[in-house]
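Go through this one:
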Amino acid sequence: MLIASAMVIVGLALLGWSADRLVFGSASLARNVGISPLVIGMTIIAMGSSAPEMMVSATASYMGQPNTAVGNVLGSNITNIGLVLGATLLLRTLSVSSIVLRREIPLLIVITALAGLVLHNGSLSRFEGIVLLVAFFALLGGLLWMAMADTNKEDPLVAEQAAEVPDNVSTKKAILWTIVGLVILPVSAQILVTGASDIAQQFGVSDLVIGLTILAIGTSLPELAASIAAVRKGEDDMVIGNVVGSNLFNILAVLGIAGTIAPAELDQAAAGRDLYAMVAITFLLVAVSYAAKRHRKLPRWFGVLLLACFVGYEVLLYISEVSK
């Protein structure tokens, strides 16, 4: 038990660190070869927050644990909205003014509905995984094209993402950190998944619940840290953009990777309880965002509501496992 717990802690720490180093190195390298900060911000930086989920789900699928992979996707989306955005809103009210963000929220509705369509039958096929991956690259290309087409307009989210691109980093250093990230990221993911699986076996907890809890919360910690840092710098659009963008990427890229590597029949709870929970908290975010559109602010009381929903969901998971 102690060894498994240590593996989870070490795996999470290395996963977050290696993902950060990979993004730092690859973004710096891209800038050094002449790619614009706008393109880097909308691709490498935007995808960086979902790198831990991608690697953990890919590793779990490869190890024959598709429920862990799918649980990580559903749980991460619930955690991003309930815990990350909820906790950040407690710090202060967040302003919403980005043109790109107003496009991404409707996209979140469509992509969440797509997740429901894919998972409602309790299975995830390789064809569905490939479709999700194709949709992911189409989404990424579309967002990038729209951002570049709006270069004459001031978009806070685009500006904030571009500002995150490292500057004055030597090519040699950029290559070094890219290699370090590429090597340690999969190793740390395997350590984490192995430790979490051992804990699940010792406590008789399902792979799905491990994905929904330990892995989902653990892989969402970088988003929480990034959101707190952003709100302290007054980058409100970056906070909401990180959450919405990460959830979009989780459904399309992370779920797509899981289905492509290991198509499988899933735990019935994934297509019921957990899918419904993700859809419900997503539409709660959408509803409040549109209700607050007039004042372009997300209020603090909404943070309390989101945190209450997150805690309630975790309690529901506990009750479900105890009652088995």
Q: What stands out?
A: The mean pLDDT is 82. The first helix runs from residue 2 to 32. The first strand starts at residue 94 and ends at 95.
